[in-house]
Predict the structure.
Amino acid sequence: MKPFIRSLLLPATILFLSHDAFAFTVVIDPGHGGYDNGANYSVGTEKRIVLEVSKKLAKLIESNPQFKVKMTRSSDSPRSLKKRAEMAQSFSGDLFLSIHANSSPDSRAIGAEFFFQHQLPPEKSSLFLARREEHHGGRISDEERMSFGPAHKNPYVKSILEDLIRTQSIHSSADLSVHLVEQWKGYKKSKKYVIQQAEFYVVSNVPMPSVLVELGFLTHKKEGPLLSQKSYQNKLAQSIYDGLIKYKESLDKTL
Ligand SMILES: [Zn+2]
């Protein structure tokens, strides 16, 4: 390249690369908030625990200039599921992470679970939803119950191209789930991490790869109290961050 052209391009490139538009935007969605406690046990409320972990994760992501972070809530305020999906769109996120904590009437239930976008036929979906409600022991909030309802059905007029984008997004979400599991450093006795396809409202209604992370069970006698501890929360935030980095690396390789 001729030197004078290079001298023209270099400052422009630096300007270009430093621009925010080139950062990879991660939208963090701490579940519940305000009047909606989510799961509520003596070790703490789900809404508080997930906000604490989300804030720690946001700090880690912010420290990396490759990323930009947005949150659907950063205080104890309620957000409808529709509002969360709308916010994710308005942030032009590249990735959506919804953070929750689990509960079960079975006190042995333990470990993190990762849910990504849904692709099951309706009859299987109903079975899944019924099992899921059972799993929550009927203690789920109205808002959460809504999230298990059928996500919007694609009107006939929506193009094949849109379906392809959606399929791509589902594959990316599955990839992200795998990286998150690989990097997970949760409670050491938890051997099983579940990856499932689910029709949660938030992960099905955002036009970007999205995963819902259940950090662990508040109802487990050992895992529950850990979820409230700052050091354990740091470990979980670091796990999710490490998963994100690996996901981004694999994405960059395909470009
Ligand atoms: Zn929840």
